[in-house]
Design brief:
single chain; alpha+beta; 5-stranded mixed beta sheet
């Protein structure tokens, strides 16, 4: 592994150096334990409340423009610049920084210098093990646990949860089987038909850790607890309820618990350690855009959940979208805060969403702390069998932080007249009546888009002021519903492959296999994969693509015959079943398609990305500014437009908010009180990750993973740390 040391920084705080030990003790006591816990970054998000706040203030509004690179760590050995995006929020324990590379190698480095201590490559362990085949997916962080000399990192790679010695970088053999546990087991489903690939870090409470994760469409997103020492599964909370469990009655299909998938907490958790309450947000049940086979509200899809961390028993829930057919998953962990109301402090939970709403609840009861109205929404679906919810919840405060309706007056006028006329014509052919417009075959505007509004980076909150900072996307997408053709008897391999592709692959890769949204074209895939390699890809998944183990071998082979264009097998008989799980949807979508101009800009008027400051005590906005820019538009004198952004912010006691996230590859610092841009710098590649803030020997650092983005352009394997010069 390589380390580039640029202006390596060390030293101790001058302020502490001149203070007597007595004065230091007084200052420490004055700050209190509550403030002191925000000095470190031992947990993803800073603390288990997920506030992404640091009480460090050596770097402040007066000196942030003097930041320089302290060190750069390259997390891969190969000199290969085509790495996948990194979304990891690294943690720091005992002056050691732990993070994950683009190819999911776990590493430990000196947090002050970036010099490597050790690295662990899961590929070396997975080759000859019985856990499962390797699946390369995103990783947004790891978890640290210690008891005496026993210090562990718990992290996931595909469908395996590993326990790695935090000092040596070696697997802990007494955990699970030789250091890992197969997450396909323990779900009450055939382990060969499910796919579980957690992307967010586990949460740890005492000797338990909790996970859910990205799942295949036939896999339930149940939340589970495991013993941190042994890997034994201790409890399971059914996000698709079983008979006799609360929420079971919200499914018209009484067998949904046997075959329905998702309702998963892929974005991670927050934890109230004092009360022992685990908080989670969930996504919608499968499939994303057609609910005719899952009629009802479908608990616990699209819910904020409060669960007893020791027992797995539900304490309360709140559903933010009923019968979701717009892919409006809860995309970030809840944030635990303490609000001021009429002179009293109230422990609360704040949940940002893709819809642009922020829901705020009392922590123990789940009662909304701002009024929420159930408002009538359109239900005139043209799709047979669909039964939409007649109402949806609308918080009255805070107001949405992203636009929720696209009209002709909101179209992009920065482009040429011919380009404007093109998007106007297309818009007039779509249906756009607001956020809960029923999906249809003519094309439905989705705004906020599939990536929000709010995304997985989530908000940061300053506990001193209760101001919440959240970055938002303002990108319209177009949803087109298509009918899946019924099964055919005596069908050929090619016919079966086409039908299976339409059911399982078209929503991501499009009807012409040209890709859509953030998903790549697979035209010409036969030049990259042979039959064996393609079969392994379907079995393991890769990055954003989940495993398809729920499909039979016959079904996987038929898809290969179609996509790899194996002409010698086109007309051979297909002997498997196209329907591979319970009730399959009769309708699907043509893919994730952004509404763009001919030039590739969003068809909606700017801003296209924003940074928002909201006072949670009052529900009112403090400020809103565009986040990100297009250099080509800036050169034309067009004011900052904002851009798509992924990854969150960090706010500090020094008055500074740090954020990368944007497609333009900049790292920025804002004045948290005013929203004024104080400093920016170019990263080696876009930092679509949340920064971490920490201190070593009295010196403050801010570090961000710079792996590149989903939009193409430069990629990197680097973690870059910044600090003030000595």
């Amino acid at each position: 592994m390589r380390n580039e040391s640029i202006s390596l920084l060390s030293g101790i705080s001058l302020k502490c150096a001149v203070l007597t030990s007595g004065l230091c003790f007084i200052l420490s006591c004055h700050s209190g334990d509550e403030k002191k816990k925000y000095d470190s970054w031992t947990v993803t998000g800073g603390t288990k409340e997920n506030m992404r706040y640091s009480s460090l203030k050596h770097i402040d509004t007066n000196n942030v423009d003097r930041l320089t690179v302290a060190w750069i760590y390259h997390s891969e050995q190969q000199d290969d610049r085509r790495f996948g995006p990194m979304q990891c929020n690294p943690i720091i324990a005992g002056n050691i920084l732990y993070g994950v590379s683009p190819r999911l190698k776990l590493f430990a480095i000196d947090a002050a210098t970036g010099i490597e201590k050790w690295s662990f490559d899961p590929a070396d362990s997975l080759q000859n093990k019985t856990w499962t085949r390797r699946s390369i997916n995103m990783n947004r962080g790891v978890a640290y646990w210690e008891e005496g000399d026993d210090k562990r990192i718990i992290y996931t790679v595909g469908s395996v949860a590993f326990a790695v010695n935090a000092v040596t970088g070696r697997l802990i053999p007494e955990f699970g089987t030789d250091g890992g546990i197969n997450l396909h087991k323990g779900l009450d489903r055939d382990e060969h038909t499910v796919g579980v690939t957690p992307t967010s870090p586990v949460m740890i409470y005492k000797n338990l850790f909790f996970l859910s994760g990205l799942v295949s469409e036939a896999t339930p997103g149940h939340i589970r607890a495991f013993d941190v020492k042994t890997g034994e599964q201790k409890w399971i909370f059914h996000t698709i309820p079983y008979p006799g469990e609360p929420g079971y009655e919200t499914w018209e299909d009484t067998t949904a618990y046997r075959h329905m998938g998702s309702a998963n907490s892929w974005s991670g958790f927050s934890l109230d350690e004092k009360r022992g309450i685990l908080f989670a947000g969930t996504g919608n049940p499968t499939n994303d855009f057609y609910g005719g086979n899952r009629i009802g509200h479908g608990l616990y899809g699209n819910c904020v959940l409060a669960i007893d961390a020791l027992t797995g028993k539900l304490i309360w829930h709140y559903q933010t979208v009923h019968h979701d057919v717009w892919d409006m998953d809860i995309s970030s962990p809840p944030v635990l805060i303490t609000l001021e109301r009429n002179g009293k402090k109230i422990d609360a939970v704040a949940q940002s969403t893709k819809t642009g709403f922020i829901f705020i609840f009392e922590r123990e009861t789940g009662e909304p702390l701002f009024p929420v109205e159930e408002r009538p929404v359109p239900t005139d679906s043209e799709i047979p069998g669909e039964q939409l919810s007649p109402t949806q919840p609308y918080p009255l405060l805070p107001k949405p932080f992203a636009r929720q309706l696209l009209t002709e007056h909101d179209l992009n006028t920065l482009v040429s007249d011919s380009s404007y006329q093109d998007i106007k014509k297309r818009f007039q052919s779509y249906r756009s009546t607001g956020m809960f417009t029923p999906p249809g075959t003519q094309g439905t505007i989705i705004l906020p888009g599939y990536d929000g509004g709010g995304e997985w980076g989530g908000p940061s909150v300053d506990p001193e002021t209760n101001i919440l900072y959240v970055n938002a996307n303002e990108m319209a997408w177009v949803l087109n519903i298509v009918e899946n053709k019924p099964d055919k008897k005596n069908t050929t391999q090619l016919q079966a492959g086409v039908s299976l592709y339409q059911r399982h692959c078209m929503s991501c890769h499009g009807p012409e296999r040209l890709g859509s949204g953030d998903y790549p074209s697979i035209v010409g895939i036969e030049k990259k994969y042979n039959t064996r390699q393609f079969s392994e890809l379907l079995s393991t998944g890769r990055r954003m693509m989940p495993a398809f183990n729920h499909l039979s071998k016959e079904a996987q082979h038929a898809i290969a015959v179609f996509l790899l264009d194996i002409k010698s097998q086109h007309n051979l008989p297909y002997t498997g079943h196209i329907e591979s799980m319970g009730q399959k949807p009769s309708y699907g979508s043509t893919g994730y398609n952004k509404f763009l101009t001919k030039e590739g800009y969003p068809a909606i008027s700017p801003p296209w990305g924003t940074l928002n400051a909201i006072n949670l005590n009052t529900g009112e906005y403090e400020w809103k500014v565009p986040l990100g820019e297009f250099e080509a538009l800036k050169e034309k004198g067009i004011p900052t437009t904002g851009r798509e952004n992924y990854g969150g912010s960090v706010v500090t006691a020094g008055g500074v908010l740090f954020i990368g996230a944007t497609a333009d590859g900049k790292f920025r610092a804002y004045n948290k009180r005013t929203g004024k841009l104080l400093w920016e710098t170019a990263l080696p590649a876009p930092g679509v990750a949340t920064p971490s803030v920490y201190s070593v020997n009295g010196k403050q650092y801010v570090v961000i993973a710079c792996g590149g983005s989903k939009w193409g352009g430069p990629s990197s394997d680097s973690y870059v740390a910044f600090g003030l010069p000595d």
